[in-house]
Amino acid sequence: MSTANLKEITLNEVVEFIWREADMLDRGAYEEWLGLWTQGGRYVVPIDPTTTDFDNTLSYVNDDRAMRSMRVRRLTGGQSVSASHAARTVRTVSRFVTLKADPEAYEVRCAQILIAHKRDKTEMLAADITYRLVPGGPHGLAIDQKIVALTNSANALNCYSFLL
Fold this sequence. Notes:
Layout: H1 11-27, H2 30-34, E1 37-46, E2 59-63, H3 65-77, E3 88-101, E4 106-118, E5 121-135, E6 141-150
Parallel strand pairs: 1-6
Antiparallel strand pairs: 1-2, 3-4, 4-5, 5-6
């Protein structure tokens, strides 16, 4: 895949990249996942799934690079309640829609269904995820922004032990 010009990147290549990210998260390969991000990348899980003003509304997650790294350390270090008996997850990502494709960024929205199992309890979460991908990273693309708009965000998350 050429990263010189995003117009040359196909939706299939974007889908493959997002599936690779989902696989990393389900395997708990969080350090590898951190390598998918740009230096200024932002990971957001807003409480209100319709908001676009992430700086002035409450979020479950609104992470820059440092916060993503700290979150991964908590999940993998065993020092956090959420890391104790980490959930096993399986996610399906589908319905990919290109929002923008130009030389600077490729934006895509997709649907995710995530099944999480922890302590004999299974939960299902659904979300619309919007990615802004840019050239770079070990797989030809890098995540510059990931917004996870949970379908039922009002009571979807309490103390979760996985990344969305």
